[in-house]
Amino acid sequence: MSADWPRLTVAELEEQGTILVVDGNHGQYRPLPHEFGEGRYAYIRATDMDGGLVLFDAAARINDTAFKRIRKGVGAPGDVLFSHKGTVGKLALVPMDAPLYVCSPQTTLWRTLDETNLDRRYLYCYMRSQEFIEQWFARKGETDMADYVSLTAQRELTVALPPLPEQRAIARVLGGLDDKIELNRRMNRTLEDLARGVFRSWFVDFDPVLRPAPAPTAAPTSTRTHPPHPRFPTRLVDSPLGPIPEGWRVSTIGQEVTVVGGSTPSTDEPKFWEGGNHCWVTPRDLSRLTDPVVIDCERRITGAGLTQISSGLMPRGTVLLSSRAPIGYLAIADVPVAVNQGFIGLKCDKGLPGVFALRWCEENMEEVLSRAGGTTFAEISKAAFRPIPMVVPTAEVIEAFARAAQGWHDQIVANVRQTRQLAALRDALLPQLLSGEIRLHEADRAVDAALRSTATSTPPERPARPGAGTVHAGAKGGA
């Protein structure tokens, strides 16, 4: 860190009107259990922050009654959020188009009140620096409770204040990487919506059968976002699962994919773990994902450890479904993986592709949950999962869906890998910029080179016709 930059405590910055640091309501003012549900206000906890982003779509919501009782912690666009209790140290920069939200008692908002003295994006960059991390890390164990950095402790932390032009330059350089990371995230949401919408339209609502699209009058100029339209049946017929397209058949998920589980080799045996090079995945790995893709893992096992798991190393393309604590995390492995006992693995080796099986699990999650048992926590066994009924389309329809959905999935994977590279560059440049080890023009060149070398296509448009996969957000049912 540049030694000649002044450092002020948060309390000093608050006193001069530069910053506001406040957490969410405690005690009588916090929302009550019955006030959560379909409200307008996102209630942001540490679990709703990941990779510098606020996961507003996943956050719980509170109603107007709870919001009117709130006395502090009401968020605003541009805030920097900091998780300070239990899970300490998560950071997120709230976008300028953020929805209405409030902080939980375990989350603090840091708000720049005077941008002529402290740039909000520079503040976010600084709070990711090693200097700042070391400050709060030294304070988080001061109580006998869970890790906790109180508001009093936060107000004693210091912020380095370079001249405003340098603040803005640092924020601009690193912000360019953050902007691309955010663009990738949004692109991936769009691609997921496309795959989800086409699956629901074709295999749940049966739109191409009930509302067939007219024959095209000219060859399409591009099929990048529009799946090829195969021949669909012209009518529905009765089946044990209700009306289904003529020529499609009723089966079970266990007949159409190979369903396997996993286990944990003894953690007391070093030869199973030390120097391991095989990905060993747990539900914890999936809980951290923002996209349904596994490209890495927290722990690795050796070849000897792999022999202790009956399902062995499952191939790339395997669909992973967490089967307990909680049920429902979903992802496709983009690398060979072994799994622990908290998973059902769907090896797609019988005709159904992984991109189909993933969406089928997603659409049928209520049925999966209804078959769970357990006294301590809900769990669905492989024996209970395999008999879940499903409707299997013709090979032509499955292939048409797979061609489009696999392309979208491959783009998601590419974006995830690019995001990891950009985040690593950002995290490497940050301390060098703050210390003066690297000059701004050198950092600019590094960022420009990274963005050029990892350039991806623009986000796709959504399909327009029901037969081509219109998204019906309210549609229900199971294939």
Concise overview:
With 479 residues, the chain is α+β, with helices and mostly antiparallel strands.
Notes on the protein architecture:
- The chain has 479 residues and is α+β, with helices and mostly antiparallel strands.
- It folds into three domains: 7-162, Adenine-n6-DNA-methyltransferase TaqI, Chain A, domain 2, CATH 3.90.220; 164-228 and 394-479, no CATH class; 249-392, DNA methylase specificity domains (Adenine-n6-DNA-methyltransferase TaqI, Chain A, domain 2).
- The protein has 15 helices and 23 strands.
- The protein has a five-stranded mixed β-sheet. Strands 2-10-7-8 form a four-stranded antiparallel β-sheet.
- A hairpin with a 2-residue loop joins strand 4 (49-50) and strand 5.
- The longest helix is centred in the C-terminal third of the chain and has 41 residues, at 395-435.
- The radius of gyration is 25 Å and the shape is globular.
- It starts with 6 loop residues before the first strand and ends in a 26-residue tail after the last helix.
- Residues 219-223 and 456-479 have low confidence and may be disordered.
